[in-house]
Amino acid sequence: MPTVDEILQQGKAQHRAGDLHAAERSYRQAVEIDADSLEAHYLLGAVSHALGRPDAAVAGLSRAVQLRPEFAEAHHHLGVVFAQQGKLDDALACYRRAIELKPEEANAHLNLGVVLAQRGALVEATISYRRALELSPNLPEAHNNLGAALAHQKQLDAAVASYRRALELKPDYAEAHNNLGSVLERQDKLDEAATNCQRALQLAPGYAEAYNTLAIILDRQGKDEDSLTCYRRATELKPDHAEAHNNLGAALAKRDRLDEAVDCYRRALHLNPRLAQAHRNLAVALSLLALRPDSPSAEHEPGLLLARQEKLKESADHRQQALALDAGNKSARDILNSALAKQEERG
Fold this sequence. Notes:
Layout (H helix, E strand, L loop, with lengths): L3 H13 L3 H14 L4 H13 L3 H14 L4 H13 L3 H14 L4 H13 L3 H14 L4 H13 L3 H14 L4 H13 L3 H14 L4 H13 L3 H14 L4 H13 L3 H14 L4 H16 L10 H24 L4 H17 L1
Helix pairs in contact: 1-2, 1-3, 2-3, 3-4, 4-5, 5-6, 6-7, 7-8, 7-9, 8-9, 9-10, 9-11, 10-11, 11-12, 11-13, 12-13, 13-14, 13-15, 14-15, 15-16, 15-17, 16-17, 17-18, 17-19
């Protein structure tokens, strides 16, 4: 009968050859023979993760951590699995423990930054990305993620520099091309922004986010039909992309296609009820529909007047939701209140 070490060697050879199912069987056999084999549990957790079996991965990696609490790689790998499951608190705890045990591990700092950014802790995320780059200056993902964190903090020039460095290191990095395009659009550098988004789509033709970004740019360039086409392509590729549905609605509203715009805003809010911009846009669109000049008078169509009143009530409801979600955004509040006031004057 083969020893545990021999079985593990066989499993690792299968793993390297890409035969993950065979490797999983070998690692499981090793665990059955020796329930306290640290290496067997760790490798079983790792291959389970690669096979898309997160629960089995957590079980194997957690057992490895129990067997050796100072096993930094197991803590880190467990954090990766938790992050993919959306268990961000657990992921943070694992990454922080991995860093305590092995402070020089750049990828642990990088992954910690990703989870911090997901939780909105952008300053802390920036610190983590910078630490990752101190340890490993040529990590394109760290440069890209640092750029994203800086962009969210409105440090646009620094964000552009980070994205450009990511692309120097990895020219075929579609996400960095798209992110650079997005920031360049915010800087009104529309031609270069479009070029980067188009490059992102050459590299990743199914990249919904790049279609959404390119559509924003094309809309600003006055290329109406191309913009609508890109927005629709973004929503086809990623039907749960709430921002793209909202942006498509805004583009349709600009062209006075308000009924279609309302449908888009409703879809965006179905996907993300906390999307303040969609609440704002829907409030304005409903008000426009209710108050536009061809709305019927009460004496001619009482039923249609009731529908008009219902639109105004719904508009007010979405206005309040937008204001509540954007409580700290004075500019957004002022824009919404001004738009609705102008419409009410016309009505």
